[in-house]
Design goal:
The complex is a heterodimer. By secondary structure, chain A is of the alpha+beta class. A four-stranded mixed beta sheet of chain A has the order 2-1-3-4. In chain A, helix 2 packs antiparallel against helix 3, helix 4 packs across helix 5 and helix 7 packs parallel to helix 8. The relative contact order of chain A is 0.11. In chain B, the strands form three sheets. A five-stranded mixed beta sheet of chain B has the order 10-9-13-11-12. In chain B, helix 2 packs across helix 3, helix 6 runs parallel beside helix 10 and helix 10 packs across helix 13. The chains are: A alpha+beta, B alpha/beta.
């Protein structure tokens, strides 16, 4: 690692070293921007402005370009996510099997629209366009666990496990 | 790695496999894993260990076996028994009853003589369900990399291109452009560096064909790309895989490492002068990046805005250089064609649509999952024989192909043969392979609205017809569905659809109106029934209406 890489970030946050490593792995090339943003989001959870500025300096790209890419792709979050994420698949197969009803039920119950986070920052409700498990429609991804053949009652119960911190229900 | 080394490795692995009394293969693709397949496979391994059977029995993760709706699936290879809905208790019984006492577990048996299995023709998916998806040795034992060896050692690049051209293979991404023709153009094009790009950004909702190939048989795709690189004179390849497929990305990374270690990728492949490297580029959740020019922009670290063609990527692609860009399924067909010859391939399918197509069967149908069928098969056969028809008590209404770019095919056209030309006659497209079956509970105006919302959200925003047009079409569909629209709105809807279709910059906008136009063509009554009656805006008979107001 070059001396520049070994320098501490002014904030003292050591996570920047991990990010630097990824940037070096791609030889600091501008076309690796999307890969670098993925790593940054993986490390920091979301891409706040200071982080975008840091990446633009490191890859020698205009900040407008970095911001343009970060806002274009659905994957990148510029705001922090909730403690838990409920990703509801709204692909065609899931839609045909009733995903919309699940969305309406959850939005009503938690007074929170999909694409937003609940007021207590506990759950982020997100729609995905297809997670590729169409044989199990309707599908949702709850904190990285894929759950298939859902219905509104089932979905509500699973979210309750987060909001009420009840012991996990064995499916 | 020489040809002799490859043959030796293949024989050694074949011997090792036949030395095992039992090979138990569990589906390790995302679908089965997410319905408990990982727990079931752990149980299989635990029980084998408990009984001390590791030396004669191996438990392997394999690719998608097709019947995803009945997963987790487990196959006992030696007597070709397939088990469905395998939970931990069934997994235990497979070992204690079937393996140890040769007594099959009746309640989990899957009938492999059923049309779902018997009516399929596997080329792309031939290894899924047969080999370990994480082992290059097993791939080699199944004739893996034989085609690359043949191409590099026995054929000239032009001969490879000619073979692909003669086979009649057409791009499986949806547009169906002749693959041999595309490669020929790239070969002749001027450029100091040429590229091979694999489009693994499977964004169509309801499609998971490419995911299954990447998770189950990644080496197949790498081999296809390497052969393409040899044919056109490219030394660098990229697989652009969507970020929503982490398992596929993991398997690809492993496969690339394995191939490099074995001298099948990298420098001096098979002791020849041919160098070819493959790197992975990850998407970030943009459907438009499945469009080839947008994809290339994304690989270059930019916003996924398509650019006008010509020039086509074949002449000016990545970094302005000649680039072959093909779909995962297209590359998966290359090795078998080189191995078995173009004549073998061109005998399958129809005159203009050769070979097979992988479809992801989903929606209201009994057998949901992945199928591979010869081109030209009647749609009725797919839906009712292979698919098993709709759930009891429901009736078939329409089959949707081509995702947000496609159309709905109603009952009257069930005898349509599934090939590129026939689907176009009913206003649909082959697409990447998603096939959603709908029954009478699906309201076609809502279906059109669903797809238009998708296109509206995914529009890159560069050109006005798509950016603004999709928004207004959606608005009109919403108005219709809420019973607030009139005949005038219907006229406007059709005009807008034609405008967006004919003037959008890229395929996303050009095909976004297809679901609307298709449902208008076959299900017009459903639209008309939602319109406000004429009296509501003309007033009482005899009233003079001032249209200027």
């Amino acid at each position: 690692m070059s001396p520049a890489d070994q320098q501490k970030h002014p904030s003292g946050d050591n996570r920047f070293k991990l990010l630097d490593r990824a940037i070096t792995k791609h030889q600091g090339r501008g076309d690796a921007l999307i890969e670098v943003l993925h790593v940054a989001q993986g490390i920091f959870g979301y891409l706040e402005n200071d982080l975008l500025i840091y990446v633009s300096h490191a890859l020698k790209l205009p900040i407008s370009r970095v911001y343009g890419v970060a806002t274009f792709y659905h994957f990148f979050n510029l705001k922090p996510k909730g403690e838990h994420t409920f990703v509801l698949c709204m692909g065609t197969a899931c839609y045909v099997k009733g995903a919309e009803q699940i969305q309406t039920a959850l939005e009503e119950k938690h007074q929170c629209r999909f694409g937003e986070t609940t007021k207590d920052n506990l759950v982020s409700f997100i729609t995905a366009r297809c997670v590729g498990s169409c044989g199990l429609a309707p599908v949702a991804v709850l904190d990285n666990a894929v759950v298939g053949k859902l219905n509104p009652a089932d979905a509500a119960k699973r979210v309750e496990q987060w909001t009420n911190s009840v012991p996990e229900v064995v499916s | 790695m020489t040809v002799e080394d490859l043959q030796e490795l293949a024989e050694k692995e074949q011997q090792r496999q036949s030395g095992k009394k039992h090979r138990i293969l569990y589906c390790s693709a995302a679908g089965c894993v997410s319905c408990g397949g990982d727990k079931a496979s752990e149980m299989l391994k635990t029980k084998i260990k408990e009984r001390g059977l590791e030396h004669e029995c191996e438990v392997i993760g394999t690719g998608c076996m097709g019947l995803c709706g009945e997963g987790p699936l487990v196959k006992v290879q030696n007597d070709n028994t397939l088990y469905q809905n395998v939970d931990e208790s069934a997994a235990e019984q497979i070992i204690t009853s079937h393996i140890v006492n040769n007594k099959k577990v009746e309640k989990n048996l899957c009938d492999t003589s059923a049309p779902f299995f018997a009516s399929q023709t596997k080329i792309v998916l031939e290894n899924c369900g047969k080999i370990d998806s994480e082992s290059i040795d097993e791939y080699i034992a199944a004739q893996g990399y034989e085609a690359l060896a043949k191409a590099v050692n026995e054929m000239q690049p032009d001969e490879v291109i000619e073979e692909i051209r003669k086979s009649g293979l057409r791009g499986r991404g949806g547009a169906g452009y002749p693959t041999g023709l595309k490669w020929g153009i790239v070969r002749k094009a001027q450029g100091e560096q040429k590229y091979i790009v694999c489009n693994a950004d499977e964004g169509d909702p309801g499609a998971f064909m490419d995911r299954s190939v990447l998770e189950g048989d990644p080496h197949r795709v790498l081999e296809g790309m390497a052969i393409a690189g040899y044919a056109v004179g490219a030394s660098q390849g990229y697989v652009y895989c969507r970020a929503e497929y982490p398992l596929a990305i993991e398997r690809l990374k492993l496969a690339i490492k394995q191939a490099e270690k074995n001298g099948l990728l990298g420098n001096r492949i098979m002791e020849s002068q041919f160098n070819f490297r493959i790197d992975i580029r990850i998407g970030a959740g943009a459907f438009v990046c499945g469009e080839e020019t947008a994809l290339l922009q994304s690989i270059q670290g930019k916003r996924g805005n398509p650019i006008p063609r010509p020039p086509y990527p074949s002449e000016k692609g990545l970094w302005g250089m000649p680039t072959v860009i093909n779909n995962v399924e297209t590359f998966a067909n290359i090795a078998p064609i080189i191995r078995n010859g173009s004549d073998w391939f061109s005998q399958i399918g129809t005159e203009k649509s050769k070979g097979t197509k992988v479809f992801a069967l989903a929606g209201n149908i009994r057998n949901t999952g992945l199928i591979e069928v010869p081109m030209g098969i009647p749609l009725r056969k797919i839906v009712f024989d292979i698919g098993g028809g709709t759930e009891e008590g429901t009736e078939f209404k329409a089959a949707q192909t081509g995702g947000p770019s496609g159309g709905c095919i109603p009952k009257e056209h069930l005898d349509l043969t599934v090939d590129y030309e026939s689907l176009a006659t009913v206003g649909s497209i082959m697409g990447s392979g998603g096939l959603i079956v709908m029954d009478s509970t699906s309201k076609m105006v809502d279906v059109a609205k669903f797809f238009m919302q998708f296109c509206m959200d995914e529009s890159c925003g560069k050109c006005i017809p798509c950016r603004v047009g999709t928004r207004h079409i959606y608005g009109l569909l919403d108005k219709i569905s809420k019973k607030k629209a009139t005949q005038d709105d219907m006229v406007l809807l059709e005009e807008l659809c034609m405008m967006v279709k004919e003037t959008s910059l890229c395929g996303l906008g050009q095909s976004a109106p297809n679901p609307v136009l298709s449902t208008l063509r076959f299900f017009r009554r459903e639209y008309d029934e939602l319109l406000q009656p004429v009296e509501m805006y003309l007033g009482e008979p005899g009233t003079v209406v001032d249209f200027e107001k």
